[in-house]
Write a structure and sequence with these properties.
single chain, mainly alpha, MetI-like fold, 2 domains, two-stranded antiparallel sheet, 2 strands, 80% helix
């Protein structure tokens, strides 16, 4: 009984902030209050007419897509390389694991300071493409761990049988290995996308006024000039990963049926 009470309490603590945001987003007026005095769609209408918020969401989308495009192939390549050297050089394998896991172990503020110094020195500070590449460094370990777990259960007898029959390695990779790790790649993409959209620390150091991600826009809006549009933007930020998750499950269902 106590376990269920604790479980229900945890669920309430997790869902309660979302409920507050959802209710507040449908308020009306110039100030942000809870509960709203009047209800309406004023905050959503105002949000979509605010060019700064729209630009920030577009910038974050570009950053997230760039992170995915860089993290997926690099993380997968590291897994394949680790499996290749697993029985040949265990020391090198451990070094690969350590280096790949390093971005997760480092505090984000240290990464932000390092990236700030690097981008300012090279002259690429504030570029959304560069910020996407930097975010992919955090996404690579996610791809590495998920794909590695997937390949641990991979039936290597299939690839051996295909190679015995004279099938080319590229065909084996495309028709046997890739479909097997596809769910892991899709899961990694969703996680990297959500992390990139909400990543704040590195974005604070690397972004500039002309390329402000939506996470930085949230922070500055609440700290310096709070507006009711924060709640409507938060609802949209909640809906984006939900839509991506639904697409993932639909693709996975089609994949399992085929």
């Amino acid at each position: 009984m106590k376990f269920w009470m604790i479980f229900i309490l945890l669920i309430i603590l997790i869902i309660f902030p979302l409920i507050i945001v959802l209710i507040s987003a449908f308020g009306s007026g110039n100030s942000l209050v809870f509960p709203p005095v009047h209800f309406g769609l004023d905050y959503f209408i105002g949000f979509f007419t605010e060019e700064e918020w729209i630009n920030s969401i577009q910038t974050s989308l570009f950053i997230a897509i760039t992170s995915i495009l860089f993290a997926l192939p690099l993380g997968t390549a590291i897994v394949f390389y680790q499996n290749y050297i697993e029985h040949k050089n265990k020391f090198l394998k451990n070094v690969v694991i350590m280096i790949t896991s390093f971005p997760i172990a480092i505090p984000p503020i240290l990464l932000g300071i390092g990236f700030f110094i690097l981008t300012r020195s090279v002259g690429i500070h504030g570029n959304w493409f560069v910020l996407g590449i930097l975010n992919s460094i955090i996404g690579i370990p996610i791809v590495y761990f998920l794909v590695n777990i997937s390949l641990r259960r991979f039936p290597y007898s299939l690839t051996e049988a295909a190679a015995t029959c004279g099938v080319k390695p590229r065909t084996i990779l495309k028709d046997i290995v890739f479909p097997y790790i596809l769910p892991s790649l899709l899961s990694s993409s969703i996680i990297i996308f959500m992390l990139s959209m909400e990543e704040l620390v590195i974005a604070l150091y690397v972004s500039k006024p002309t390329t402000i991600p939506v996470s930085v826009r949230f922070w500055t809006s609440i700290k310096y000039n709070i507006t009711p549009y924060v709640t409507s933007a938060a609802v949209i930020m909640i809906l984006i990963p939900i839509i991506f998750s639904l697409l993932f499950f639909l693709i996975k269902r089609k994949f399992n049926e085929s």
